[in-house]
Amino acid sequence: MFGSHPSGKGRVTMREPAHLVARVRLLAVAVLLLGAVLPFLPVAAQESMDGWSGYVEACGTDGGFAQQEFAPGPGTPPYGTGSLQFSVAVVNEGRIWSQLVQPTVARTALAVVREIRYWTFVTRGGAVAPHVFLDVDLNDDGVADDRLIYQPELNGTVTPLTWQEWEAVGGRWWSQRGLGGLLREAPGPLSSYLLAFPNARLAVPESGQGGLGIGVGCFGSGWAGWQGAVDALLFRSDPLTVLWNFESTGVVSTRGGGVTAGPTFRELTPRPWATVAPGTVVIAVTATSDDGVRSVRLWLNNNELSPTVTGDDKTKTVSVQQTLQPGFFTVRATATDVLGRSFTAQWQFVVSANPRDGWWFTADGTPRRVQIEQSLRALSEAFRWHFFGISWDGAYHPEMPTHVTVASTIHFVTRSPMHFMTLPPTDPVMISVEVLSTDQPLASVELRLNGQLLNAEISRDDARSWFVFTTRQLEPGLYGVTATARDTAGRTLTMSWGFVVSSNPNESPWFTPDGRLKVDTVSRTLRTLVEGFRWHLNGVSWDGQPHPEFPTHATSVSGPQPLRQWFDSQGRPNTEAITQELRSLEEVFRWHFWGISWDGGRHPDVPTHAN
């Protein structure tokens, strides 16, 4: 089948294999004029493309010719029997850019892109291989502002006639605009780019720009007469994981990221929440997958370990011995199967000479202030962000899901008082924020103290940078500040934080100066977390009524359920009840947000944003 492009500037050629007429196998595109960009879709069987679209673009004054084809081979592909094959004509020294673009990753925050892995094969031509690129949106309007490019030849040696696997996220990239310190002549890590543009997102595809792409041609020499292939492109982010396997019949996709299918864990060692003696401690876990386990990685307190690996293709056990002193330890394990599906488990344990010591209480029932405050603070902050998009530190957090639309272009640079600070009642308290908008001018900034709107002054450095402040004389007590900034486009960001006014600097929201738990504030915090999350996950209402002001994953409302008794009538903590509550909240929060398992198994009964 032959046809002319409506512009008349090029020719699109598509051939259907004789053995499978309903499938499109060959996608050929020619560009002979500068600047001609030709999007195309296959004539039939569009479902086999899984959203991928092909484009070509001239990169010289006189263009070139390129061809894309789903075909068997070459050699033995890493997955299946086929691949996506590219060829670039000798004409005009191969000055053509042939690319395939995937839109489904659009709007993914660059900060949460964890892995981009793919295989290449070079049949003939120079020592260059298909590159991957990410078109990024830097001002949250969805439009591509820059292109980040990963070239295998800048990250290793391209070997002809051999299937080679590349992991791009951990490699060196360059920016087409030279931004973020990533230059073509001096490529660098994505972390450097994120320092300059922490809110960068993958752009919405438009006319060949946006999202994730694979390309050949243009960059450097070696493309004239080049021929090669790509297979098994894995894209993993929080929460999306997709493996695109290119076959002669099109694209075969595997999704799920391990939350619904893929590897699982067993034999978590030490067991979750265990207390073990100081000295030599074995850290181990076993991963299984019916499709085969490709890798298992292990971390202890965020430091990656180098474990011993035993087992076979479908079952792998990783283990390592560590000499540990008394303290608190968190293990994280991530298993990836041969289809690219990843699954993570995380668990905690205590090292202590007393086997009755726990994470939040010592053996004699003394509350561990640091551990309890860390848990209550983290849970409260995550709760507010997830439900209402309220930031705890004035920043946008793409790594954490939220049910509301939050401006990534507004940032609270400073605040006063500091979060959880304890201030004396003798001094006036300055309540202030410094706000910066990286896009549209600011329209308003509101400050509220314990829900009451404050009459604050505003100092404007310019239309996008404001300092808002007021001073108050406050009585001893607990105080909460809420700051809401809005720009002229109507986008908002809200930050909330708390502080204490007390004559004793050792007092905190949840602890008295002598280290006892405050019954009222601890109970109120736990009740809010438990009842809010019961509603959010299962529609369990604390008063039997619907609450549309709270988001929920449930489709029906059920009546209240009893709460644990966290304190007795004398105000003494029920250590077992508080431990069970904090443990349950932490485990369910991690699963709901990121699909991280607390016991190595999947939990389909608990909704998760990792789907």
Question: Would you kindly provide a written description of the structure presented here, covering whatever features stand out?
Answer:
By secondary structure, the protein is mainly β. The protein has 3 domains: 2-250, Jelly Rolls (Sandwich), CATH 2.60.120.260; 264-359, Sandwich (Immunoglobulin-like), CATH 2.60.40.650; 407-516, Immunoglobulin-like (Sandwich). It is built from 4 helices and 37 strands. The strands form 6 sheets. Strands 1, 2, 3, 5, 6, 8, 11, 15, 16 and 17 form a 10-stranded antiparallel sheet that branches. Strands 4, 7, 9, 10, 12, 13 and 14 form a 7-stranded antiparallel sheet that branches. Helix 2 (369-388) crosses helix 3 and helix 2 (369-388) runs parallel beside helix 4 (575-594).
Biggest sheet architecture? 10 strands, antiparallel
What's the end-to-end separation, in Å? Answer: 40 Å
Q: How helix-rich are the residues, as a percent range?
A: 10-25%
The tally of helices reads 4
The secondary structure category is mainly beta
Look up the CATH topology of the largest domain.
Jelly Rolls
Question: What is the CATH architecture annotation of the largest domain?
Answer: Sandwich
Q: Judging from the principal axes of the Cα atoms, what is the shape?
A: globular
Summed over residues and divided by their number, the pLDDT gives a mean of 87
CATH superfamily of the largest domain: Galactose-binding domain-like
Give unreliable regions as ranges.
1-47
Strand content: 35-45%
**Count of individual beta strands:** 37
